[in-house]
Specification:
Number of strands: 0
Distance between the termini: 68 Å
Largest sheet: none
Shape: flat
Number of domains: 2
CATH superfamily of the largest domain: Hypothetical protein af1432
CATH architecture of the largest domain: Orthogonal Bundle
Helix content: 55-70%
Number of helices: 15
């Protein structure tokens, strides 16, 4: 049974376009299913998490990251007797707007456009405007709010959104450590001891201890919190990761080329919009800003598709 502070589907603020209710699924279950069946969800399997085009099969992609966030978030939501369906829908949709090549692509689009490109805002645009050939997925307000506010600076309106916000950090800090160890860039022993003594000395132990800390601290209050000691250890571990992995020249050796790919695509489409697919040209003809639509198209590309598109646009074909 849900706690009174849970987000109940029958009190949702609803969808932009009203629909007949389903007889076997709640609105949040329907939102989760729509996200899973969307094209943008499937494309995440070929989008970078940290390592660009990794040689091994076991490195995380944007899709596997999303699944790990969803699993952590669902565990916390169930333990706190909050709405697991809403939590899962937000988690599965939170990164739909990510560019190819991870944050390198995001930085490149921000430089090319006249405004910052933020993947959380793009994720909302994907579900509101771009999916289903411009119709969008017509998700509930609560799911869209959680997607928009999953970044550190965000303030979700629901406790379920707050769970996804912290689960995202728990997932990427720990699975990126795992990938860094797999790549030979990090070792368990190289992690700051003041963090691992609090959180644990393996990926499994750290995720487990953080989940338990959040559940224990949040069970009797209408908020999602963790003890200060755990919060500080996670923050310090994240800082360590930025210094030793996220900016590591081995892990990021190809990022300059990746950013150049995005910049070349943006410049080419800005010069000649007829090279965009017909449905994107239609957005522009319907009054959408050209720059926004070009960002839409590039952000939706997978890593491989972006590279192949650059080849087709700029590399001569043999006779």
């Amino acid at each position: 049974m849900f706690r009174p502070c849970a987000a109940f589907s029958d009190t949702s603020k609803g969808r932009d376009v009203e629909e007949e209710k389903c007889d076997i699924r709640t609105d949040y279950q329907r939102d989760r299913d729509r996200i899973i069946h969307s094209k943008s969800f499937r494309r995440m399997k070929h989008k970078t998490q940290v390592f660009l085009a990794p040689g091994g099969d076991h490195y995380r992609t944007r899709l596997t990251h999303t699944l790990e966030v969803a699993q952590i978030a669902r565990t916390i939501a169930r333990a706190l007797r909050l709405n697991e369906d809403l939590t899962e829908a937000i988690a599965l949709g939170h990164d739909l707007g990510h560019t190819p090549f991870g944050h390198a692509g995001e930085r490149a689009l921000s430089r090319c456009a006249s405004r910052p490109f933020n993947h959380n805002e793009q994720s909302v645009r994907v579900v509101e405007r771009l999916e289903k050939n411009g119709k969008g997925l017509n998700l509930t307000w609560e799911v869209r709010d959680g997607i928009l506010n999953h970044k550190t600076s965000g303030k979700p309106a629901t406790l379920e959104g707050a769970i996804v916000r912290i689960s995202d950090k728990i997932a990427y800090v720990n699975h990126d450590i795992d990938d860094g160890i797999r790549a030979g860039i990090l070792t368990e022993e190289s992690l700051p001891w003041e963090c691992t003594d609090v959180l644990g000395h393996s990926t499994r132990d750290r995720i487990n201890s953080l989940i338990h800390a959040i559940v224990k601290s949040s069970l009797e209050i209408d908020n999602i919190v963790m003890p200060h000691e755990y919060e500080q250890a996670l923050k310090d571990l994240r800082t360590f990761m930025f210094a030793d992995l996220y900016t590591n020249p081995v892990a990021k050796s190809e990022e300059g080329k990746a950013e150049q790919v995005v910049e070349m695509l943006f410049a080419e489409y800005s010069k000649d919009i007829s090279k965009l697919p017909e449905e994107y040209v239609k957005y522009i003809n319907d009054g959408e800003e050209k720059e926004v639509v070009i960002c839409d198209y590039i952000a939706g590309m997978t890593d491989n598709y972006a590279v192949e598109t650059v080849k087709s646009l700029f590399i001569p074909r043999p006779w």
